[in-house]
């Protein structure tokens, strides 16, 4: 029977429905807060700590990534700014800002270069081994970083802290890219309103301040984005200073090895790369051994980086680089630096053209002076001493023949103690006191008291000079006073003559530094350079006519035969009469024959000079001359530390004697004499007690013979005057300046004859 459509209503319970009804209800869950309550109860205090730490971490992390994002945006903006201003790499390869200066000695041989001597080269003109040496020595991760190396900075900080320095002092951890940023001055140009010279501007560019370090980072990123690694390396290798007046590896290769940078071998490449940290110190012209030792370190770094095999390393170390014959012969760095500093800037230090300077420099004398100085220091100075010395040798007309500005003699671009160091002159100033006295009419045989002396100084203070020995000798002649370098007698003479006259004589002879007007003037309380003092003594040597020390004979443009500039110095005006100069030379001869300068004796060769030691023993001098040369020596410490047991009559006199012995080797022994520049033919030559006047003119000249006879007879009759100082506190009231007794040589005839014979 067919069932009807639809589902009929059911009644009662169905077993299946019961099952469905039983499975349908959801299980009862605990409220969410009850579960949290149970978890908190189970964690206790540790849960709260964990939650707090999580909160702090979220705050720090949120701050860090936000700060990082801000820094990244700033760096990106700064890098983009620098990127826009960067020129094409080729425009930066040539770092020449000036022309070249080639210097010739008195024989026409090249001895020094200055300025930007050679042009720039690109990477294809630099030997691959040279590029590898630079990367190994300066920035091992150069090809793997983006301009800044965090590992390098961290390593530098660690090294600085281990050495006891500040984290940013000393090793800077700069990459080659950052160093190029410094060389390019971060894109800045010279501003004359901010910097007085370009050298000052460049020094500021290379300063290691924190702000400049910060600016280097975006500039380095910009360069890495703009240029290839080879282009950055080429800029670096063209602009780096490498000593010897060479800027760039092409110039350095030519200067040191006389070959282009494309032809250097492994040892030479390592030596050039080793110059980068300290060019003046590691320059092979300064110390070949030190340069070779530094190159050996670079070779080891190249081996560590895989650029050299073990066999190649051994071969390179077995055959270290040496200087070319031309480079070995060239010296005179201090002399060359002096010319660059003292000459007109537009033709020397700032020249934009290539020029050639013919100089007074004598390479034979320079090498002889260097040998002598080194020998004395090796034999007489303790090992490790930081004491320094300077030497100047010149002819009597002021032509400088040799110059040593420090114990490291074959250098350039460093402090020159012969021309830049102003030091107290001590007793080496005393000849100007006696020159003023002799010019005023005093005689070498006149007497002056060496005894206790006190001088009133404005303001109510008193000054009492003492002798070096703390003893007094009573009445002495002017000759004895100078020979023994007595202080109290010198000051009495100075006060009798007048300080203004002493200052005039010193200045006219060439002491251009400021001179004190206090009574200590005569004891060398004022400062002067060694070049000034040596030039002033040259004026005494040549008969009382001042000289201006000079080194330039002429200057020409390369390729042009007509000089642009001629001799820059030489004879000047007469300062004292020829007679007074002859008397002073005689007195200075006694300094060496029997006074404080006996260690300067040159056997039978006539010499004259003067010792000098400052009261604090910080400076020791000896300046003197023969007929051929005038030489000055200074010795002391750069930091003004007092010398231990050294006076002007000690080591400086021995250095002077060694130098003069070397440079006079083979020269004839000539008597010290001066001929009047006005052609009168009067020669001053030393006699038994005082200089005698004789004639070198024709024997038929009765006037000259008569004048000489009169003057000699006056000197023979002179018994000597007594000098008294006008400002003594002890020994009675002040007297009139220049008062004396026994003025037999002070009459009108004597003065008139002195004027005639002296050309006054």
UniProtKB/TrEMBL annotation:
EC code: 2.4.99.28
Residues in the signal sequence: none
Enzyme class: transferase
GO terms, biological process: peptidoglycan biosynthetic process; proteolysis
Enzymatic reactions: [GlcNAc-(1->4)-Mur2Ac(oyl-L-Ala-gamma-D-Glu-L-Lys-D-Ala-D-Ala)](n)-di-trans,octa-cis-undecaprenyl diphosphate + beta-D-GlcNAc-(1->4)-Mur2Ac(oyl-L-Ala-gamma-D-Glu-L-Lys-D-Ala-D-Ala)-di-trans,octa-cis-undecaprenyl diphosphate = [GlcNAc-(1->4)-Mur2Ac(oyl-L-Ala-gamma-D-Glu-L-Lys-D-Ala-D-Ala)](n+1)-di-trans,octa-cis-undecaprenyl diphosphate + di-trans,octa-cis-undecaprenyl diphosphate + H(+)
Domain Penicillin-binding protein transpeptidase: residue ranges: 390-634
UniProt keyword list: Carboxypeptidase, Glycosyltransferase, Hydrolase, Membrane, Multifunctional enzyme, Protease, Transferase, Transmembrane, Transmembrane helix
GO molecular function, one term: penicillin binding
GO terms for cellular component: outer membrane-bounded periplasmic space
Record keyword Glycosyltransferase present: yes
Pathway participation: Cell wall biogenesis; peptidoglycan biosynthesis
Region annotation Disordered: where it falls in the sequence: 1-36, 722-760
Residues of the Glycosyl transferase family domain: 119-303
Biased composition (Low complexity): 731-747
Membrane-crossing residue ranges in chain numbering: 43-61
SUPFAM superfamilies tied to this protein: beta-lactamase/transpeptidase-like, Lysozyme-like
Keyword Transmembrane helix: yes
Family the entry assigns: In the C-terminal section; belongs to the transpeptidase family. In the N-terminal section; belongs to the glycosyltransferase 51 family.
The name this protein goes by in its record: peptidoglycan glycosyltransferase
The species this protein was found in: Paracoccus aestuarii
């Amino acid at each position: 029977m067919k069932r009807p459509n639809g589902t009929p209503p059911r009644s009662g319970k169905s077993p299946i429905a019961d099952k469905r009804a039983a499975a349908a209800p959801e299980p009862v869950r605990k409220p969410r807060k009850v579960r949290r309550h149970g978890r908190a109860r189970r964690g206790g205090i540790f849960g709260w700590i964990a939650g707090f730490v999580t909160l702090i971490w979220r705050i720090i992390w949120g701050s860090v990534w936000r700060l990082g994002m801000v820094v990244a945006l700033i760096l990106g903006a700064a890098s983009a700014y620098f990127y826009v201003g960067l020129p094409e790499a080729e425009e930066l390869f040539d770092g020449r800002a000036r022309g070249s200066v080639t210097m010739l000695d008195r024989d026409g041989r090249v001895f020094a270069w200055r300025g930007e001597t050679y042009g720039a080269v690109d990477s294809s003109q630099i030997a691959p081994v040279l590029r590898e040496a630079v990367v190994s020595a300066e920035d091992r991760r150069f090809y793997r970083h983006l301009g800044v190396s965090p590992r390098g900075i961290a390593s530098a900080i660690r090294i600085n802290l281990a050495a006891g320095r500040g984290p940013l002092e000393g090793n800077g951890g700069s990459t080659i890219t950052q160093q190029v940023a410094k060389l390019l001055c971060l894109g800045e140009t010279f501003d004359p309103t901010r910097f007085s010279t370009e050298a000052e501007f460049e020094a500021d560019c290379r300063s290691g301040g924190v702000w400049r370090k910060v600016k280097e980072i975006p500039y380095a990123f910009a360069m890495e984005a703009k240029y290839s690694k080879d282009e950055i390396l080429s800029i670096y290798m063209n602009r780096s200073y490498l000593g010897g007046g060479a800027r760039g590896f092409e110039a350095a290769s030519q200067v040191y090895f006389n070959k282009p940078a494309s032809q250097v071998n492994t040892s030479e490449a390592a030596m050039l790369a080793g110059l980068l940290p300290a060019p003046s110190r590691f320059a092979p012209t300064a110390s070949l051994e030190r340069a070779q030792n530094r190159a050996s370190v670079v070779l080891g770094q190249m081996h560590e980086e895989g650029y050299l095999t073990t066999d190649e390393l051994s071969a390179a170390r077995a055959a270290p680089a040496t200087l070319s014959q031309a480079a070995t012969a060239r010296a005179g760095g201090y002399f060359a630096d002096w010319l660059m500093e003292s000459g007109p800037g537009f033709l020397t230090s700032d020249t934009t053209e290539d020029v050639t300077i013919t100089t007074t420099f004598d390479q034979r004398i320079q090498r002889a002076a260097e040998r002598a100085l080194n020998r004395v220091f090796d034999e007489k100075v303790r090992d490790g001493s930081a004491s320094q010395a300077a030497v100047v040798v010149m002819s009597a007309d002021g032509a400088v023949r040799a110059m040593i500005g420090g114990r490291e003699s074959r250098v350039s671009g460093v402090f020159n103690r012969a021309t830049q160091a102003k030091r107290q002159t001590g007793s080496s100033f005393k000849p100007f006191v006696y020159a003023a006295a002799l010019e005023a009419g005093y005689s070498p045989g006149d007497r002056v008291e060496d005894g206790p002396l006190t001088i009133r100084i404005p303001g109510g203070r008193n000054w009492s000079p003492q002798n070096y020995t703390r003893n007094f000798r009573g009445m002495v002649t002017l000759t004895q006073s100078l020979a023994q370098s007595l202080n109290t007698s010198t000051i009495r003479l100075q006060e009798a003559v007048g300080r203004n006259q002493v200052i005039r004589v010193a200045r006219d002879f060439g002491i251009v530094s400021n001179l004190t007007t206090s009574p200590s003037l005569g004891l060398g309380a004022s400062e002067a350079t060694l070049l000034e003092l040596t030039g002033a003594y040259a004026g005494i040597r040549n008969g009382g006519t001042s000289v201006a020390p000079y080194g330039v004979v002429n200057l020409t443009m390369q390729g042009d035969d007509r000089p642009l500039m001629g001799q820059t110095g030489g004879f000047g005006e007469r300062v004292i009469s020829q007679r007074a100069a002859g008397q002073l030379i005689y007195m200075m001869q006694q300094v060496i024959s029997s006074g404080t300068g006996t260690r300067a004796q040159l056997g039978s060769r006539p010499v004259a000079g003067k010792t000098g030691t400052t009261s604090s023993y910080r400076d020791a001098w000896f300046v003197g001359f023969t007929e051929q040369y005038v030489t000055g020596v200074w010795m002391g410490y750069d930091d003004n530390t007092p010398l231990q047991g050294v006076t002007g009559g000690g080591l400086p006199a021995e250095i002077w004697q060694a130098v003069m012995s070397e440079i006079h080797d083979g020269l004839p022994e000539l008597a010290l004499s001066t001929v009047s520049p006005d052609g009168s033919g009067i020669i001053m030559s030393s006699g038994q007690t005082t200089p005698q006047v004789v004639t070198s003119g024709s024997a038929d000249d009765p006037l000259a013979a008569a004048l000489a006879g009169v003057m000699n007879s006056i000197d023979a009759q002179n018994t000597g005057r007594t000098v008294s100082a006008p400002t003594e506190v002890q020994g009675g009231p002040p007297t009139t300046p220049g008062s004396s007794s026994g003025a037999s040589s002070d009459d009108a005839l004597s003065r008139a004859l002195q004027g005639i014979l002296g050309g006054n």
